[in-house]
Amino acid sequence: MERVCFQLQVVPDRIVEYVERHAAVWPEMLQAIADSGRSNYSLFLRDDGLLVGYYETEDDAASQAALEADPRTAAWEAEMAGFFVALGGRPDQSSLRLTEIFNLENQRTAP
């Protein structure tokens, strides 16, 4: 299982609206995420708009490709694109990936 963490920056004057939109994500988008193989997906937002996301998947490249090809995803990302600072493409495809440097379970179970 791959653990993926990413970072985006929400436009400061759109933070409240961004939070409201995520209180009720479209059911078809929730299904698209699940269909892509992602689970345990969470978003964390700091008061200044720093957004950190996390999910788990068996194959991140395949998950990305599935979401990129899914029209349900394109519609949601088109709605969300204006919430982010300095993106060069679709939010899910353009986020900064963070490198995992520590995992409790990995170290606890290491030989």
Layout of helices and strands:
Elements: E1 2-9, H1 15-22, H2 27-35, E2 38-45, E3 50-57, H3 60-69, H4 71-80, H5 91-94, E4 96-98, H6 104-109
Antiparallel strand pairs: 1-3, 1-4, 2-3
Distance between the termini: 19 Å
Question: How many DSSP-defined strands?
Answer: 4
Could you describe the largest sheet, including whether it forms a barrel? 4 strands, antiparallel
Q: Could you tell me the CATH topology label.
A: Alpha-Beta Plaits
Helix content: 40-55%
Structural class: alpha+beta
Taking all Cα atoms into account, the compactness measure Rg is: 15 Å
Summed over residues and divided by their number, the pLDDT gives a mean of 92
Number of helices: 6
CATH class type: Alpha Beta
Proportion in β-strands: 15-25%
Uncertain spans? none
Second rung of CATH, namely the architecture: 2-Layer Sandwich
Strand order in the largest sheet = 2-3-1-4
Principal-axis shape: globular
Number of domains: 1
- The helix/strand order is EHHEEHHHEH
